[in-house]
Structures are given as structure tokens and as C-alpha cells.
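Task 17 of the worksheet. Students: predict the tertiary structure of the chain below and write it out as C-alpha cells. Keep your answer in the requested format; marks are given for formatting as well as content.
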Amino acid sequence: MNTGTKITAFAVVLAASFGTAYGLGAALDPVRAPAAGANAPGAAHAHDDTAGEASAAPPAGGLAVSEAGYTLELLTPRIASDRPAELRFLIRDADGGPLTSYRRTHEKELHLILASRDLTGYRHLHPVRAADGTWSTAVSLPRAGDYRVFADFTPAVEGSRNLTLGTDLSVAGDYRPATPAPASRTATVDGYTVTLGGSLRPGAERELRLTVAKDGREVTDLQPYLGAYGHLVALRAGDLAYLHVHPGGGDTAPGPDVSFDATAPSAGTYRLYFDFRHKGTVRTAAFTVTTGPGDGHDDADGGGTGGHGH
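Model answer:
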């Protein structure tokens, strides 16, 4: 759900609340967050099969190319850095044919996330599906390296649940690993300051609260983007597991606060991407979060540099 980003980071993520599979992200309904058990969608969103299941800890999503009879086939396995390219892929069903029927979640049939292994590159894209089931999207990645491609979708088949499939993309060019982003509680992007509040603990649900300000003043007129005031994408350090986050309950307002309920599945380092829209532009604020026994903090530590997400 956003425009291009540049993010200093090393492998990360924020672990979040879970459903049938870990997913990456969550979204807040512009008027009211979904109640437990209510339908709510995928990447950077809460999924319709996850609400009210924060105590579950299923296998992480995005680590497998196939699940539940569906397979992600990347038709463009490699591109060149810093050049416009078309990324093409298919979702195949158990019979090997292309899936052509999807359930729309947050206004889209499928959400596509690209993240570099060192997390210096991040994109949230919404590709277009052709009649034959082939998906395509324009993309330009300024940094070379190994990327993980996540497809977050729900088949429009009775009894189907939300799925997050992952595969690798090679981006050719001069690759130089980035310096890990330090942990801090604020991120800045285009003059906006986003502050991370709340706590993150392994095995226990906690509230994460993102507060948006511009030029020292709280922003109270955030605009809905894909049906939400805020979207949270989370990836775990090391394996880039795609994780679920629940939107905070109750009535929601257009800022300055956007809240999510999250559970870290283990001690470690996580990367969290928060997408928000203001004055017609979608921006991404990124944080590095480290948590674990004896870390001495009651609140989550955030850090990193935000950039335009897309």
C-alpha cells in the first residue's frame, strides 16, 4: 500500500498476532476496527481467519512457496537493479492450473510484498491480474541483492483461508550489505515523525501504538488507504517470516494514533513497516524492534528510517 521506500536495516520483523499462518501486517478500519471473529484481510491487514486467535502460534507464513494446495510461481525470477522492470507471477491450484478467482481483502484481490534480505529495500505492491490468471506489476528496485517476494491472498473457494506464499527474487547489480538500523522509538519520513509506543513481548499479546505528527503537530486527518487509516507490515529477523498483526479494537479516528495488537513468537529482532496516507500521499515509517527475556524494557523499542512505500 504504498510508494517507494528506502530503509536502512538488517534482517528483521515484528512478530504479530496470529491466525492460520503468520502474515505480514494489519489494517485498521477507518470507522471501526473489526471485532473478534469479524472478517478482515491480508498483508498489512488483519486476515479474516485470524481475528480473535492471538493465542495461537501457527507456523510462520511466507517461508514456503506452496501451501494448502496452492503454489506461487514467479515468472520473472531475476531483474536488474535500478531499472524499470515488469514482475510477473502465477498462483497455481492443486491441479496445476492458474487460480483466477480471489476474495477481495482491503479492496484488493492480492497484496504483493517485496523485501530485500538485508531489508534495505521494501515495496508493497498491488499487481494487475490478466484473464488467464497471470499477475503483473511494474517495479524498480534501486539496490541489488536477494529479495523475498510474498503473495498474500484468499482464494474465492468455500472454506479457503488466507494464505501467504513466498519465493526468492534475484536483483542483479553491485551489491553492498547495509549497516543494521539501530533501535529507537521514532522514525521520520518527508517531515513526518512517527512515534512507536506500547510493548512487544514474546508469547504475550501487547498493544503497539503508532502516533503521527507533522512539524511538531499531531496529524488528526489521516486519509483512508485501502479502507484503513494504518497498515502494519512485520518481518522477523533471519528468516523474514511474514507475521500477523491484529488491528486495535473499538472505534477508530483519523489520527494521530493508530493501534495494533501484536505478539512476538520469540525473543529477537524484528522489522516493522507502518503505512499511512496524508494529503494524498502514502508514506512508510520503519522501525527496528528487539525483544526478549531480560531486555529491561516494558515498551517496544522502534527504530530506523522511513521512506515512501509502494
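Marker's comment: The first strand starts at residue 5 and ends at 6. The chain has two domains: 5-58+181-291, 66-172.
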